[in-house]
């Protein structure tokens, strides 16, 4: 019996990659894209795989987590990476592309593939499977509503508020103390930056005066902040003490150097298994990046903080993946449907394309009636799946790939030299992904 035709909805980074992976496995694909008839607030063309903002696919060194992810994708014959290399422009250690050349070549290759039929219309209801839905952070409102109805209220985020993440090795640990509120949980899950009254007052004054990013036109008028994750500066506008009773509350925390409870505390929560990245708890913000650097470096211990991710708020449709997706990217309540791309809760062009690649490969294998497994946790691809499935649902937020998500093989844990360890980890990951690819291919 021949495999059924697969519907792929959305020809962005993820959908294009998924369609390619299915077609190269010999499966017929209907690839549906709503542009140019109906567009999103950020896209400007009818091309597939349009890069809506920066033209950079970020770092290219294999000791960089996103560099490793790229190499893994290339080992699995990624169309997105192949097109990106062919359209690359000089960008130092990063892979940047001529965006038109890039998008046009992906469009041309998929449109002329004998197994892919391209159709241009807006999908407004959840399709019957087998299908991959990859409609991205700007999923059209009708399909967003259909997904929300199917998964239940609160399953989808609409505005995405993320707090900054800073690098552990850029913090002044002399000025911080470890410990959870009321000494609950692991002793080193949080770092605390204590503030006295003057420090707090100065911080609030600078925060209120700081420059904010204006909303882009497509966001204007639609913004409804969730009370649970208001931008820090919006909270501060409600009263000088609001932060001291909110994200900067000091209760349950004793500074071991003074034996007293500070006036206010900024908590940093460990963001990765390796404790190399720390999230400023409750500090989602629309401050401009220079202002985040200026104002947040006023926090004791953060004077030289290096920002791995800046805080931001923008429109972003994504599911609460740990609650709704399995490790094979299928909706738990509709296993005939897979999600891929940014809407799964990964962040970034490369990560979005990577989940499209995985969804395509895993569906092809499933349609062949063979057992399917997610890639090993010691690969960057496996790290993305781990992020989507192993986080606590109430703490889930979109993430880029990082070393903190990639499991370090036991035999490499003891290597102290980080560069050497990363090289060995990358070699091991590439070996593992090639083997996974060999068992998950046409
Ligand atoms: C404003 C903005 C700026 C961003 N900037 C960056 C950046 O600089 N760097 C970075 O790494 N990441 C960035 N991202 C995040 C993200 O990586 C990209 O949005 C990326 O394109 C996501 O890939 P995707 O395949 O999931 O979605 P997309 O590439 O957006 O593809 C989804 C496709 O689905 C189509 N579609 C939507 N709804 C329907 C429907 N109902 N029926 C049919 N088709 C539909 C869309 O037209 C689109 O072509 C940005 C996101 C946004 C919103």
How would you sum up this structure, described in words?
With 442 residues, the chain is of the alpha+beta class. The chain has two domains: 277 residues, FAD/NAD(P)-binding domain, CATH 3.50.50; 146 residues, Elongation Factor Tu (Ef-tu), domain 3. 31% of the residues lie in helices and 17% in strands. The strands form four sheets. It has a six-stranded mixed sheet, with helices on one face. The protein has a six-stranded antiparallel sheet with strand order 10-11-12-13-9-14. A hairpin with a 6-residue loop joins strand 12 and strand 13. Helix 2 runs parallel beside helix 10. The chain is globular and about 70 Å long. The chain starts with 5 loop residues before the first strand and ends with a helix. The relative contact order is 0.16. About 2% of the residues have low confidence. The protein binds flavin-adenine dinucleotide (FAD).
Strand order of the largest sheet: 6-2-1-7-17-16
Which class of secondary structure composition applies to the elements?
A: alpha+beta
Mean pLDDT, as a whole number? 91
Total strands: the figure is: 17
Radius of gyration: 23 Å
Note the quaternary state here.
single chain
């Amino acid at each position: 019996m021949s495999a059924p035709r697969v519907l792929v909805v959305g020809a962005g980074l993820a959908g294009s990659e998924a369609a390619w992976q299915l077609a190269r496995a010999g499966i017929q694909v209907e690839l549906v894209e709503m542009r140019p008839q109906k567009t999103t607030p950020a896209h400007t063309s009818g091309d597939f795989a349009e890069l809506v903002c920066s033209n950079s696919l970020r770092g290219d060194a294999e000791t960089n987590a996103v560099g490793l992810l790229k190499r893994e994708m290339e080992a699995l014959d990624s169309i997105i990476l192949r097109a990106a290399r062919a359209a690359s422009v000089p960008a130092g250690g990063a892979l940047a592309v001529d965006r038109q050349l890039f998008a046009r070549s992906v469009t041309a290759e998929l449109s002329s593939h004998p197994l892919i039929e391209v159709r241009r219309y807006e999908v407004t209801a959840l399709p019957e499977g087998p299908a991959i839905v990859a409609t991205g952070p700007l999923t059209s409102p009708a399909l967003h509503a259909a997904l929300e109805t199917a998964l239940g209220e609160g399953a989808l985020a609409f505005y995405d508020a993320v707090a900054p993440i800073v690098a552990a090795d850029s913090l002044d640990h002399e000025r911080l103390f470890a410990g959870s509120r009321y000494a609950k949980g692991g002793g080193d899950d949080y770092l605390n930056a204590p503030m006295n009254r003057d420090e707090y007052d100065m911080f609030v004054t600078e925060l209120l005066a700081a420059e904010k990013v204006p909303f882009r036109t497509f966001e204007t008028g639609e913004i409804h902040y969730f009370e649970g994750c208001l931008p820090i500066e919006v909270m501060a506008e409600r009263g000088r003490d609001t932060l001291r009773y909110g994200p900067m509350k000091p209760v349950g925390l004793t500074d071991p150097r003074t034996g007293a409870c500070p006036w206010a505390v900024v908590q940093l929560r460990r963001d990765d298994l390796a404790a190399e990245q720390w999230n400023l708890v409750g500090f989602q913000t629309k401050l401009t990046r220079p202002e985040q650097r200026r104002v947040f470096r006023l926090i004791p211990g953060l004077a030289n903080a290096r920002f791995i991710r800046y805080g931001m708020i923008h429109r972003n449709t994504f599911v609460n993946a740990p609650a709704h997706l399995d490790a094979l990217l299928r909706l738990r309540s509709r296993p005939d449907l897979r999600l891929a791309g940014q809407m799964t809760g990964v962040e970034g062009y490369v990560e979005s394309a990577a989940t499209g690649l995985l969804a395509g490969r895993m569906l092809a294998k499933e349609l062949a009636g063979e057992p399917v497994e997610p890639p090993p946790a010691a690969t960057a691809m496996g790290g993305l799946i781990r992020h989507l499935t192993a986080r606590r649902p109430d703490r889930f937020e979109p993430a880029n790939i990082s070393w903190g998500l990639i499991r370090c093989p036991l035999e490499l844990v003891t290597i102290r030299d980080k560069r050497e360890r990363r090289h060995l980890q990358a070699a091991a990951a590439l070996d593992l992904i090639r083997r996974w690819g060999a068992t998950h291919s046409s």
